[in-house]
Amino acid sequence: MVTALNRIAVVEDNPVLARMLKRILGDSGYHVTVSGTVATALATIRTTDPSLIILDLMLPDGRGEDVLDELMQFRPLSRVLVLSSISHMARRVSVLDAGAMDFLAKPFANAELLARIRTRIRAAQSSPAQSSPAQSSPVWATSAPRYLLRAGIQLDLKRREVLVDGRHVPLTQQEFLLLMHLLQRAPDPCSRGELLASVWGTNIDTGTNVVDVSVRRLRWKLASNQIETVRNVGYRIAA
Asked: Are residues 78 and 116 in the same domain?
C-alpha cells in the first residue's frame, strides 16, 4: 500500500545505480520513483509528493543543488538526503546549509542508507505536521498544543508557519525544526550536540560548523535578536 510516508523520489542519472536503489528501497517496502535530470526530478516531485528525496549532485542538465534550490522555493519542508561521490567538506556543508537534511557519500553501504532513511521517515511520522496540507494528521486529535509562542515568535505546528511580530517568515524544513527545538527548550540553552541530534538526526560530530551556520541563517531570516549565543554551550531563545 502506497502511503504518504513510504514514497521516495530518487534523483540519479546513473541507470545501474538508479535500478539498484529502486530494488533496494522497493524490497524494504518503499514506493520509489526515479528521475535522471533536473527537469524530470522537479516535475516528478511536484506530482508524487514524496516523503523523502534522495538526490545526486551530478546531473546531465544541471546540478543537484539546482533541484535543492528550486525545492526550497516551492516545497521548503522537503526532506532531502544527498547521495553523491562529491564528498568535499565545503560541498557537504553547502548542501546542508541550503536545506538538505543529510549527506551520504558514494560508495555507500546499503544498511547505512536504509538506516538513515528510516531515521528520516520516523522523524516525519513523529513531526507535528507533514509537508503536504492534504495529508491527515491524527496527532491533532490530541490535546497537543498547536502553537509555540515566545519572544515575539509564533510557530504554527499544524500549518508549519512562522510569524515574527506579525510578519510571515518562510523557513526550510531544517530551519523550522531548529527554531522549534529552541522554542520548546526555552529558556534553557541547547548545546550544539543536542541540536545536531534533534535537527540533523546524528549524534556524531560532523567536524563542521553546520549548527552555527544554520543559526546565523535563521537569525538573518528572523531579522531580530531572539536567538542568543551561550558561550561554551550553544544557543537559546531570549527570555
From this structure: yes
Q: Are 44 and 35 in contact (CB under 8 A)?
A: yes
Q: What is the pLDDT of residues 179-190, one digit of tens each?
A: 988 988 888 999
Q: Which residue has the cell 532531502?
A: 80
109/161 same-domain check: no
CATH code of the domain covering residue 81: 3.40.50.2300
DSSP one-letter code for 197: I
- Residue that the C-alpha cell 531572539 belongs to: 226
Looking up cell 524490497, which residue turns up? 27
Same domain, 114 and 25: yes
d(CA 50, CA 31): 9
Longest dimension (CA), the chain: 54
**For residue 188, which phi and psi values (nearest 5 degrees)?**
-70, 150
Q: Tens digit of pLDDT for each residue in 1-25? A: 555 568 999 999 999 999 999 999 9
28, part of any domain:
yes
CATH number, domain of 204, equals 1.10.10.10
State pTM to two decimals. 0.62
139-to-11, 52, 133, 158, 176 alpha-carbon distances in Å: 31, 21, 14, 10, 18
